[in-house]
Amino acid sequence: MKTSLLIVVLFAACAAQAQTHTIRVVPIHLDGNDNPPKGIQFFCTRDYDHQHCPQDAAALQHALAPYSLDPLGAWSFVLVPSYSWKYLVRSLGGSPVSPAFSILDQHITVLESSLFFPSDTNSRNEELLLTYGLIGPALLDLAVTHELGHCICLDTDESRADDYGRGLRDKKPVYCIGSARLVTAEATTHEPSANSYTVLGATPEQEALVRRQILVMQPSTYPLRVLFVPHWKYIDAARAFRPHVPAGYASAMFTHLPSRSVFIDSDRYVSDDSLGYCLAHELGHLAANANSASEGDADKAAHEYRKRLKDPHKPDAH
Length: 318
Ligand SMILES: [Zn+2]
Known about the structure:
Layout: E1 5-11, E2 19-28, E3 40-45, H1 52-64, E4 75-80, H2 82-91, E5 100-103, E6 108-112, H3 125-132, H4 137-153, H5 158-169, H6 179-190, E7 198-200, H7 204-217, E8 225-229, H8 231-241, E9 253-256, E10 261-265, H9 272-287, H10 295-310
Parallel strand pairs: 3-4, 4-6, 7-8, 8-10
Antiparallel strand pairs: 1-2, 2-3, 5-6, 9-10
């Protein structure tokens, strides 16, 4: 039986009405010739057709293959069945007509099954054909390049995403016009926030523990994502993101600084205390001199976080 993961999507557009949405997902393991970079992960929602899921994920991987995904860093692609699409998108405040959307600050792109399986009785063929004049692989390519435009440039603007997407299809380098401004805007809107990060792949207990520990540590920089991943995936990700780790050695946790993603080896973390101890070190990396890769800098910041973990009730003396 496959383990089910949770993606908790937090919308803090209006702090007073922050909404939490939970999408239950299953991770997809793909082999094949279109291997994406290591940080890229594919999921199907748990209610997705079990036979079509690996097929459709492979079709998505194939559709992504012509484009460089390196600028994305760590990114998750989630497939959602047509029949629950409109409900999901509406609940997230998006336009249900579009067959794909991205949640940029959480590094997630969500795609509808109609893009992969147009003959599905639940698919929105006619509606999509009327709106986009395309269906099948051509529409998938359009959707994928448009979303990559959003994601590579971290730009929410629709017409610029169209331009970036067209550039990608024409094999031109992507020049992000609005990204610098938007990245800054994102940084100021979402920081500091004890809740605006995503926890992926954790059991409810693990997620509650991580959130509690981070809350107590009050780090000066929060992660964007905390991912619990199985050992084999962790080793892959660690090799891809930490090329300087000596062969054969891997800790139970590391941080991909550009995407502020903390990876936790879910097969190796041993106790709540060790989790907190290591987490302090990773948050130290994020805090130290604006994202320092130096272990010493990280430990210096971690020292303070560990004190708070030990004695959560003692107010900060400084
Ligand atoms: Zn868009």
